[in-house]
Amino acid sequence: MEDEQALKKLYGEMWRALLSKDIETLDGLHADEFVLTHMTGMNQPKAEYLRCVRDGELNYFSARAENIFVEVHGTGAKLIGQSQVEAAVFGGRKNLWRLQLAFDTEKRGDKWILIRGVASTY
Where exactly are the structural domains of the chain? Predict the structure, then answer.
């Protein structure tokens, strides 16, 4: 139960950092090898993803979690968050998305970290 709570907290911390463009916090929450697969199928490595957040290519204005699912397997876990997200991405206009982010996570020491993410709608 402790790991499940830590993973749900990680999801919330990620959204707080995205909304405030806190790149330092985002950097610490994502593994160096992190890759995000966007709804379009584009794979974006961590450095490029964080640059896009910092430079405003990925703008997040609000996020309200509706469901968070966690499945822990030893030092690995699947974390799936479903949130109503207001965002403007890659030059598009601001829109409300039913965004699902499915993450592979890993426990390194006593800290859970995001390894891979796949974005879709729900």
Answer: 2-121
